[in-house]
Every structure is written in structure tokens, then in C-alpha cells.
């Protein structure tokens, strides 16, 4: 076991740690969306149907969602270096298996191994950033994470669409593999430990309940396209809800819980997590709805739908570090209130789409809502995490990532269901397929608009503590002429 380094030790190269972890997180998140556009090509090449092909994305999400709650235990049990090397190593191995897979079964195994590594990377990176950066600099640090979270998923479908049109779908994995391997090699030689080990005990009953709970919910809601009356959907969600209830109640009885739900006793953390889940759901849901409208109702290509959402994703990526720095100076409430107003203002117009709505207008509105989200997602998350003591950060990070994953899955399923039902009702009234789909899209975005307004209301319940002065600000204040004069008067 490596010796543990703390943020106070001068040998700790924070820039290198940040670069290594951001690279690992980028390829892990990029990988989640790369296969969406490539599925038809994989179906043709491996001679599988759409149901089997969908498992390539479903299994990744499931394993990822199951691994995230366990990361709080792993972060406290194993050193930063060992855990990151293991996670990136697993991801690289899974990528290699997927790239050379001769059949569907092997490809599915590759995706499982990939997801096992990817599920650890994000919560680990978030926890490490919270440890190595002081509170007054955490906003900028979390802004860099926001850049990865927003930019990687957005370029995935566009990049994938361009590549599979010209090359084999295996090229997608061969592009990711060198990045993962290089990051792994650098981590082996350069990454240092930053977390303090607590050697917790692993409660296998909690692991089982967590797997059934989060896995059941994720699978159930991701399969909701089959219909809410489908036995698989009903049973999966039911198993998930019951298991999750048993899991949560068990955590309160354990001295060393697998996932510490007592973090929700802090009001600021609770409100921040609710807002984060709503905003993330609105982001993922809209990213799913928009291609359906563009491709099926407007009959444009997948590349077109990717290009329409790309400017917003790029702007969100650029703004995330900037809004992080603004958060460090002014806190979350002011910037997030402005962001939620922009988000709502950019979402409401999508409830009034027509068959002739300008693509330029759609791109601008989508970019506006993404701009607003960049001012909310990471500042609000950081505000909540800042309220907790260091020993709870691993649990809070795992909770944050788990809720985002589950919330995004549930929110997307609900929005797609609204779109489907509203489209069917419209078609029964005699409307064309295209007009029925547009009506369904409008209804789904109407609900998304309501969620945006709800988040805007909730931001007023976010009560942040007063901003503390940094050491530099305090030194500057002490050295100011006013303070010097006061000091002279008090001495006299």
C-alpha cells in the first residue's frame, strides 16, 4: 500500500492530478454516448436485432449505476492511486475486448468491464478534487468536471456518426483505447495519493440491496419504451423500489454504512441535490427528445441533430470553469438564479415547435438553455458538497453521481412516455405522423419547462453560509490603509 499524501504536502502536483483524472473521466463519459449512432452498423455486422443491440448501452448504464454507490466504500478502503489505476485499467481492458470482439457476447462482456471501471472514475475524481482544493477554490475545480460532463456526451453522437459513416464501428473503441492507455501509464508513474484511508467494513447485504435497488430502477425505467404495462418494466421497478427501501433503512442501522444517507440531514445539501437532479434530467431528457424531433419529424440526418446541439454543449463546456470561478467569489444562489431563468426561458419555446420552426432558432434556444445550465449544475452541486465534513465527501460524491444517473434515467423515461402517449392521441385525431410527433415533443418539453420553473423556485430555499475570506483577501485587508489607521488608533 502506498504512503498517503495530504494536500498540505508540497510535493503534491495538483495540476498533474487534475489532468490525469479529467482525461480518464472524459473518455469514460464520451464512451457512454459513442455507440448510440453506431448501433445500426453493429446490428448489421454482428447479425443481431435492435433489442440485443440496445443491451450494449443498457448494460453499460446498469453496471455503471451499480458501481457508483459502492465507490464511497472503495474510496475509503483503497488509496487514490490504486483505485484510479484499477478503474482506468478496467476501462482500457474493456475497450480492448470490445474493439477486437468477434461476436455480440464478447462485445457485451467488453461493455461490462468498461462500465465497471467507468463507474468508479467520476465519484473518485469528484472526491479527490474536493480534498485537494480548499473551499474557496472548489467552484473552479468542479467547473472543470462540469466541462467534462457537458462536453463529452454532446460530441459523442456527432463524432460517432461521422466515424461510422466512413470507417468500422470498431474504430470508435480504437480511438478511445490509446487515450485510456496513455492516461493509465502516466497515472502509474505520476499519480499520488490524496485521500485518507479509514478501512471500513463491507456489508454484503447492503451491496446486494444496492445492486437490486439501483439496478432495478435503472433497468425498469430504461425499458419503459416497451410500455408501462410490460411485466419486465413493472417487476424491475417494483424490485428496485422495495430493495432500495430496505437498503436505505439498513444504512441507518449500520455503524459503517455502505452509503451514508445522513448527508441529507443538511438542508443545503438536500436542496442542492434536488436542483441538480432536476437540471441534469432536463439536460439528458432534452438531448433525447431533440434528435427524435429533428430526424423523425423534420426528416434530417443524425449528423444534423448532433450539430444542432453541439454549439450549446461547447458553450456549456467553456462556461463551466468560468461559472466555477464566479461561484468561488459570490456563491451559488445569484449565478444559479440567473442560470435557471435562462434555462426556463430557453426550454419554454420548445413547447411550441412546428413543422416549419427555424433550425437557426432551435439552435439558438437550445444553446441558451445549455448556457443557463452551465450556471447551475456545478455551482449548486459544489454549494451542497461544501457543507459537509471531509470524512463524508466520498459518500456525498457517490450520492450525487448516483442520483444524477437514476434521476436522468427516470426523467428521460417519463419524458419519452409523455411524447409517445401524446403522439398516439394526436394521431388518433387524424393528424399526420409528423404532426403527431411534433405535438408529443411539445407536450414533453412543456413538462421539462415545468421542471425548470420548479428548480427556479427551489433555488430560493438554498441558504448558503456567509462567504469566508481567503488568506490572500485577509492579508490584503490587514495591509489596507484603513486597517492600519484603525490599528494605530487602538494602540494609542
Automatic annotation (TrEMBL):
The organism's place on the tree of life at top rank: Bacteria
Assigned GO CC terms:
plasma membrane
Which InterPro entries has this protein been placed in?
EmrB-like, MFS, MFS_dom, MFS_trans_sf
- Name where it's found: Cell membrane
User: Where in the sequence does UniProt note compositional bias of the Basic and acidic residues kind?
Assistant: 467-478
Q: How does it sit in the membrane?
A: Multi-pass membrane protein
Q: Which UniProt keywords apply?
A: Cell membrane, Membrane, Transmembrane, Transmembrane helix, Transport
Question: What Pfam families is this protein classified in?
Answer: MFS_1
Q: Where is this region: Disordered?
A: 467-492
UniProt keyword NAD, yes or no: no
Q: Which residues cross the membrane?
A: 12-35, 55-75, 82-100, 112-133, 140-159, 171-190, 202-222, 228-248, 268-290, 302-322, 334-353, 359-385, 406-423, 443-462
Which stretches make up the Major facilitator superfamily (MFS) profile domain?
A: 17-467
Q: Which SUPFAM superfamilies match?
A: MFS general substrate transporter
GO MF annotation list: transmembrane transporter activity
Please state the protein's primary subcellular location: membrane
Record-linked NCBIfam families? efflux_EmrB (TIGR00711)
Q: Which PANTHER family match?
A: MAJOR FACILITATOR SUPERFAMILY (MFS) PROFILE DOMAIN-CONTAINING PROTEIN, MAJOR FACILITATOR SUPERFAMILY MULTIDRUG TRANSPORTER MFSC
Q: What is this protein called?
A: Putative MFS-type transporter YcnB
This chain's source organism reads Paenibacillus nuruki
